[in-house]
Amino acid sequence: MAVVSPLPKFKVVFVGDKSVGKTNIIYRFMYDKFDTTYQPTIGIDFWSRTILSVEDTQIRLQLWDTAGHERFRCLIPSYIRDSSTAVIVYDVANRQSFLNTTKWIEEVRKERGSDVIIVLVGNKSDLVDKREVAVEEGDAKALEFGFIFIETSAKARFNIKPLFRKIVTALLGME
Ligand code: GDP
Ligand code: MG
């Protein structure tokens, strides 16, 4: 019988203010679905998906979806500590959520130091008329800290696959 070597597994934690679209980004990636009603994540949700990375290697991504609610914030540090990638999400139509990424960056740094891949994501890029954060600002912040940056729209199915492709590329050190 052939020996099946275990798939490389990577933990990816999603953080950011509530309602920025973390759960919908994951839904879009996992099921190609979008949910217009807002259902706050209770505590922490978990998804796992095996994906084919570049050069036909398979890897398994474990996605941890956190809730922005105060009541559950105390749970978040342990998930950050356990993850090799942190996706920090803000809403391009909500300036405060962009400013608050600084707090999320500090939170991630506190748990992981620089031993972590950080991806800054500006979601809801479809809200053109309501935009409060320019793409250049997200770009500049990511550049300042040396993060990966991408704008997405879970609703319009924009840049979701490229987001995960960037994560995998970084995880496999193929940048
Ligand atoms: P979370 O609290 O960060 O997990 O945010 P959710 O994924 O639950 O989304 C919060 C709200 O924003 C919901 O009403 C979603 O339908 C909406 N939403 C999420 N992503 C997008 C997006 O890309 N564009 C728009 N216009 N709305 C979005
Ligand atoms: Mg959620």
Helix share, percent: 25-40%
Put simply, the count of helices is 7
CA radius of gyration: 16 Å
How many beta strands in the DSSP annotation? Answer: 6
Distinct ligands, ions and cofactors found in the model: guanosine-5'-diphosphate, magnesium ion
C-alpha end-to-end distance: 36 Å
Assess the beta-strand content as a share of residues: 25-35%
Describe the global form: globular
Low-confidence stretches: none
SSE order? EHEEHHEHHEHEH
Average pLDDT confidence is 90
Can you put this structure into words, describing what you see?
The protein is 34% helix and 25% strand. The protein has helices at 22-31, 70-73, 76-81, 95-99, 101-112, 135-145, 160-171; strands at residues 9-16, 44-52, 58-66, 85-91, 117-123, 148-151. Strands 2-3-1-4-5-6 form a six-stranded mixed β-sheet, with helices on both faces. The N and C termini lie far apart (36 Å). Bound molecules: guanosine-5'-diphosphate (GDP) and magnesium ion.
Summarize the topology.
Layout: E1 9-16, H1 22-31, E2 44-52, E3 58-66, H2 70-73, H3 76-81, E4 85-91, H4 95-99, H5 101-112, E5 117-123, H6 135-145, E6 148-151, H7 160-171
Parallel strand pairs: 1-3, 1-4, 4-5, 5-6
Antiparallel strand pairs: 2-3
The structure holds guanosine-5'-diphosphate and magnesium ion.
